[in-house]
Amino acid sequence: MKPKLTLTDLKAEATAFAALQSAHREPTLFGVTDGKAVGTYFEHKFREHLRDRFDFQEGSSAQGVDFPELDVDMKVTSVKQPQSSCPYKSARQKIFGLGYSVLVFVYDKTDDPTNSTGHLDVQHVIYVEQERTADFQTTTGIRKILDNQGNKDDLLAFMQERMLPVDEIEAGNIADELLKTRPEVGYLTISNALQWRLQYRRVIDQAGTVSGVIRLK
Asked: In the list 59, 127, 196, 197, which could disulfide-bond 214, CB 3.0-4.6 Å?
């Protein structure tokens, strides 16, 4: 009987797996430049690593996160352009967070022509707590308005300037909520699109120095 995967286990295994993967040379990755293919390879291998050791529920695209019991999604990205996409649920995610935590693996890929292998050097493993998964500029901008005795009209104008994908009624609801509860500072950069585009450069820079952005490696 395998033990149930806990959040502590997930973080520890992410660090251990990063070291294993960084020492590994993989023939099937030789010459592969498609980041999605590299990410899929890495994610499958990490799940396999966990399956050998723990019992856990695996996420599906319908659930939207890789580890639904822990409310954690896994992202794998290149250090050259550390970003990924994620499902768009509502404009609120930019202000209040994605609704789950994010485990980010950042790799640098090189090829060895002598052995025809690809090498993924996992340079960063970062865990971003759910409360810190909102957009940095949006949350810091809102907090400045609130600090400056801003009212509902100021918040509505700001959301309009930021081109938040939201109708007037929902914008009004969000503004009312913000006047009661200040949002936490988020550390992702979230670009508007049919799918959110998440960018991780700030997370990499700030990991280990701010609350809720934890450097595992």
From this structure: 127
184, 193 contact by CB (below 8 A):
no
Spatial CB neighbours of 93, under 8 Å, sequence gap ≥ 6: 99, 133, 134, 190, 196
The tens-digit pLDDT sequence of the chain (217 residues) is 899 999 999 999 999 999 999 999 988 989 888 888 999 999 999 999 999 999 999 886 656 799 999 999 999 999 999 998 888 888 899 999 999 999 999 999 999 999 999 999 999 999 999 999 999 999 999 999 999 999 999 999 999 999 888 899 999 999 999 999 999 999 999 988 767 889 999 999 999 999 999 999 8
3-state secondary structure of 201: helix
- The residue type found at 38 is V
DSSP string, 87-114: ----THHHHH--SSEEEEEEEEEEEETT
What residue ranges do the domains of the chain occupy?
7-88+99-135+187-215, 136-180
**What is the pTM assigned to this prediction?**
0.91
Cα distance between residue 56 and residue 58, in whole Å:
6
- Interatomic CA distance for residues 205 and 86, integer angstroms: 21
Are 136 and 212 contacting, i.e. CB atoms less than 8 angstroms apart? no
Distance of CA 68 to the CA centre of its chain: 15
Phi, psi values for residue 2, rounded to 5°: -80, 145
CB 74 within 8 A of CB 92: no
Residues in the chain: 217
